[in-house]
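Budget justification aside, the reviewers requested a transparent look at the raw inputs and outputs of the sequence design task funded under Objective 1. We therefore reproduce one unedited record. The lines immediately below are the C-alpha cells for a 317-residue chain.
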C-alpha cells in the first residue's frame, strides 16, 4: 500500500509538471481581464469541481482579488442575482459538458460579463462558450480504476493558485496587505506589528541615569505592579538601559541589598537590541532568540522611545 500511495503522488506530481509546460498566454489574458474588471470573480462548479472552486475563490480573496463562489444549481433557482455586469465568471469542469454549468453560462450571457473556463477538454461545450479557456489537458486520474477526480482536480487547483498569485504580484499586494486580511490565528499573529503588542510609553516609568534607585522602585510599583520595569533614557529620550524590578529583588534575596541611593544606571541592564514599532513580530522574535533577552525597547521613526515589547508576549507557545 505504501508503494501504491507513493506512485499516486508521483502521478499527480507528473501531471502538474505537464500542466506547467502546456500553460499558455490565456492565463495572462484572464489576469488582465480580472485586473481591469469593475466587478468580482464568481467561481462556479458542480461536485468536486465546486469544492476546488471554493478553494480557488478563497485564495483569490486572501491575496487581494474579490471573489465569491456560486453553485450553478442555486444560481438557476434564484441566486443568479448575485452576478452583476462587470463580473468575471470562472467556470470549472473537467469534461466541459456539465449540464447545470452550461445552463448557467447561457443565463449570464444576458449580462456584460467575461466567462472563463478551466477544463480538461479544449473542444468541449464549455470551452466553446467561454471567452478565455485555461486548458489543463486530458488527465489520467490516479488509482486503479482511474475514475475518481484526483489528478484533474489537483491540476485545477494548481491553475487557480497560479492565477491568484500572478494577480497578487500585478496588484503590488504587500506583506502589510496580507496581514490586514489575515488578522486571526497564528498567521495573523506572525504578521502583526510590534506596535500592536508593545507596552505603550504612558504605562512605563522613565528615568534619567542619575535618578536614585529608591525613586525608580517606588514609581515602578505605583505605575504598574504587573510590569515591574522602568526605562532609563538620556536627555533626548533615547533609551540607554532597562531597570527590572525582579532583578533587584533577586539581589535582595541573595543578601546583596542594593543601596537605594544608588543612581539607576548602576542597576540597569544595558541595551542589546531595539526595534521599530513598524516591524513585524517575526523580526522581534528573531532578535529575542538571538540576544536571549526578555525585554526590548521600541522606537519611532526618529529613534525616540515609544514602548517596550516582551519576549513572553512575542514567543507565546
Amino acid at each position: 500500500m505504501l508503494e501504491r500511495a507513493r506512485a499516486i503522488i508521483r502521478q499527480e506530481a507528473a501531471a502538474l509538471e505537464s500542466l506547467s509546460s502546456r500553460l499558455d498566454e490565456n492565463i495572462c489574458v484572464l489576469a488582465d481581464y480580472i485586473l481591469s474588471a469593475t466587478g468580482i470573480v464568481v467561481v462556479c462548479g458542480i461536485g468536486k469541481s465546486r469544492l476546488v472552486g471554493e478553494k480557488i475563490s478563497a485564495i483569490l480573496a486572501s491575496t487581494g482579488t474579490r471573489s465569491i463562489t456560486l453553485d450553478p444549481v442555486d444560481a438557476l433557482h434564484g441566486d443568479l442575482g448575485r452576478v452583476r455586469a462587470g463580473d468575471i465568471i470562472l467556470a470549472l469542469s473537467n469534461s466541459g459538458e456539465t449540464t447545470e454549468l452550461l445552463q448557467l453560462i447561457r443565463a449570464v450571457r444576458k449580462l456584460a460579463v467575461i466567462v472563463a473556463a478551466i477544463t480538461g477538454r479544449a473542444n468541449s461545450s464549455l470551452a466553446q462558450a467561454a471567452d478565455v479557456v485555461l486548458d489543463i489537458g486530458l488527465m489520467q486520474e490516479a488509482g486503479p480504476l482511474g475514475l475518481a477526480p484526483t489528478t484533474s482536480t489537483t491540476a485545477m487547483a494548481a491553475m487557480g493558485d497560479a492565477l491568484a498569485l500572478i494577480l497578487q504580484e500585478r496588484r503590488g499586494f504587500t506583506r502589510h496587505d496580507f496581514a490586514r486580511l489575515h488578522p486571526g490565528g497564528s498567521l495573523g499573529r506572525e504578521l502583526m506589528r510590534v506596535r500592536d503588542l508593545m507596552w505603550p510609553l504612558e504605562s512605563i516609568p522613565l528615568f534619567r541615569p542619575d535618578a536614585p534607585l529608591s525613586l525608580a522602585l517606588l514609581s515602578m510599583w505605583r505605575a504598574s505592579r504587573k510590569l515591574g520595569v522602568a526605562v532609563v533614557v538620556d536627555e533626548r529620550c533615547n533609551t540607554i538601559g532597562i531597570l527590572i524590578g525582579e532583578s533587584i529583588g533577586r539581589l535582595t534575596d541573595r543578601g546583596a541589598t542594593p543601596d537605594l541611593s544608588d543612581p539607576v544606571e548602576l542597576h540597569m541592564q544595558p541595551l542589546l537590541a531595539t526595534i521599530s514599532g513598524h516591524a513585524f513580530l517575526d523580526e522581534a522574535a528573531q532578535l529575542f532568540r538571538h540576544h536571549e533577552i526578555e525585554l526590548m525597547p521600541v522606537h519611532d521613526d526618529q529613534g525616540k522611545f515609544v514602548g517596550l515589547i516582551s519576549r513572553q508576549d512575542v514567543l507565546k507557545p
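The chain has a mean pLDDT of 88. The first strand starts at residue 41 and ends at 45. Computational costs for records of this kind are itemized in the attached budget.
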